[in-house]
């Protein structure tokens, strides 16, 4: 039987989908991050099912028991406390184990904090990099941010309240004081979007607002002068030499960090004009 990944509300219980409720009702067992939290959700919708805890500290140990249940033709629903399992939440280890052993897997679309925050930010939405939580010690975080310094896509971070100001200061120092937005308490009564720059938040954020989980959306790196002409010149030169538009878009996107569709459009427009 299948493993079904079921997103659960990040705030408002009305965000639970009809299909998600049906899958919870049809499951033989529900693997969940916190049994107490999931029990509240099930009680609200009058669903009674056996629960198995599956959190960051025991997920590896839960692999074999859950795989045995799938082998015994049981239907397992996998949930986290809020949002989509595996997306900065436990669940990825179980999903990979089921995949490697050939069990059918389905993922339901549904609640997450990532996409609402991206849309509320007002920052570029066409292409983005989801970072999630910055993990590790300060030096590891610094190294990770250095790797993202020249990424032109919008960056999306999850941030906890007790590390918020320190991480904003670190990000502002390494990435520059870029345009950014902080979205907190998504889908809850006190949902709020605060727009500004990374370092301005450190000076203006009232302590009373540093509560709940935050999503930080950060503007991508600015295009460096000279790069624009460089990739355009190289694109035209190779296109005239017979290189395919698809291969050019792939290679130049990696080399210059330009979106593939932008490169394709430029080649098609300019080469057809010359013809």
SSE-based structural type: alpha/beta
Number of helices: 11
Query: In CATH's first tier, which class of the largest domain applies?
Result: Alpha Beta
Average pLDDT rating: 91
Q: Report the sheet with the most strands, covering strand number, pairing sense and barrel closure.
A: 5 strands, parallel
Proportion of strand residues: 15-25%
**Low-pLDDT runs:** none
Distance between the termini: 58 Å
Spell out the helices and strands N to C: EHEHEHEHEHEHEHEEHEHHH
Number of strands: 10
- The percent of residues in helical segments reads 40-55%
Tertiary shape: globular
Computed CA radius of gyration, to the nearest angstrom: 23 Å
CATH homology-level superfamily of the largest domain: Tetrapyrrole methylase, N-terminal domain
CATH architecture of the largest domain: 3-Layer(aba) Sandwich
Q: How many domains comprise the coordinates?
A: 3
According to CATH, what is the topology of the largest domain? Cobalt-precorrin-4 Transmethylase, domain 1
In what order do the strands lie side by side in the largest sheet? 3-2-4-1-5
């Amino acid at each position: 039987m299948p493993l079904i990944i079921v997103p659960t509300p990040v705030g408002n219980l009305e965000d639970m989908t009809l299909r998600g409720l049906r899958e919870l009702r049809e499951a033989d067992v529900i693997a969940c991050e916190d049994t107490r939290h999931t029990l509240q959700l099930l009680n609200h919708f009058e669903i009674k099912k056996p629960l198995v805890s599956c959190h960051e500290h025991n997920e590896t140990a839960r692999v074999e028991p859950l795989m045995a249940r799938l082998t015994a033709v049981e239907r397992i629903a996998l949930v986290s406390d809020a949002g989509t399992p595996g997306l900065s939440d436990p669940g990825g280890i179980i999903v990979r184990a089921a995949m490697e052993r050939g069990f059918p897997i389905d993922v339901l679309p549904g609640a997450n904090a990532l996409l609402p925050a991206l849309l509320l930010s007002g920052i570029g939405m066409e292409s983005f990099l989801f970072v999630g939580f910055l993990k590790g010690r300060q030096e590891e975080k610094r190294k990770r941010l250095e790797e993202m310094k020249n990424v032109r896509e919008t960056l999306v971070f999850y941030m906890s309240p007790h590390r918020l100001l320190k991480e904003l200061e670190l990000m502002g120092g390494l990435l520059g004081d870029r345009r950014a937005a902080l979205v907190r308490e998504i889908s809850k009564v006190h949902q709020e979007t605060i727009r500004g720059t990374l370092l301005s938040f450190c000076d203006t954020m009232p302590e009373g607002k540093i509560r709940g989980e935050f999503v930080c959306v950060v503007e991508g790196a600015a295009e460096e002068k000279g790069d624009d002409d460089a990739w355009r010149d190289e694109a035209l030169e190779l296109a005239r030499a017979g290189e395919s538009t698809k291969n050019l878009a792939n290679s130049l996107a990696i080399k210059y960090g330009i979106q593939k569709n932008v490169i394709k459009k430029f080649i098609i427009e300019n080469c057809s004009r010359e013809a």
